[in-house]
Amino acid sequence: MKFIIITGLSGAGKSEVLKVLEDQGFYCIANLPPVLLKDFVELTMSKKSDFENVALLINTKESDAIHKFFENIKDLSESDIDYEILFLDASDRVLTKRFKELRRPHPFSPDGGIVKGIELEREELKGIKSKANHIIDTSNMTLGKLKEEVTKIFLEGSKSEKLSISVVSFGFKKGIPMDIDLLFDVRFLPNPYYIDELRPLTGNDSEVREYVMGFEESRVFLEKLKGMVEYLIPYYIKEGKSQLVIGIGCTGGKHRSVTIANELNEYLLDKEYRVTVIHREQEK
């Protein structure tokens, strides 16, 4: 039996994750008061229970609720109850945008600004985040990508460090994504745009991939990029970073950046890292 406790920042996607698990056959409960956590877990795990997999979304929208959560987690650990904590995170910029779109006040700052509420909640949840078995940063994730990530972790049993990696291809002429941690400019590579038969295609097409990777400078760059990223990942994990965003940019975000992003994504997947690839200009 899997018992998953879902928590995290307001607006980070906790409800969406609960829906994904419900669709996969989990018995799901939303917003159970933390004080009832231990009793509920003992009930579902008793021999009389016929629950197979359970997912529980804990309401931690108040400081008092967070303190009660810690007390009950301690009780669960002392009772040798097997459970996993999934923490949903996102950048301040993305969370602010989501709250503005919903036109809702932040629960930690109903009379103040959204940014202040996010700061307060992030500080209050630092302890819970440190105890999480899994951390998913949804800043650059569509609902489809989030579903894939949850499925990988809980249904396919993929390896799950506390770091998720997003490889983002983009076009410089449309602006640099704000959340990028590592930025690589591939405009020095030969451009398929100037080949008539390749212009309407993208880096997702084999013809473009073969053209871009047919040059020695592309292959050498890719090998050096792989080595650098793999060298850095353990240090990001050590520092407690939950999301690493790698930006690959070319002029229009259609050919070279998409090709290199796909190559890097495949390499990291083979290494069993938690990674998703996002082609910003293709998904618009």
From TrEMBL:
Q: Report any Pfam family annotated for this entry.
A: PapZ_C
**KW Nucleotide-binding (keyword) present:** yes
Q: Keywords in UniProt for this one?
A: ATP-binding, GTP-binding, Nucleotide-binding
Do the record's keywords include Endoplasmic reticulum?
Answer: no
Sites binding ATP sit at 8-15
Q: Where is the RapZ C-terminal domain?
A: 164-282
**GO MF annotation list:** ATP binding; GTP binding
Q: What is this protein called?
A: GlmZ(SRNA)-inactivating NTPase
Lineage, broadest ranks: Bacteria, Bacillati, Bacillota, Tissierellia, Tissierellales
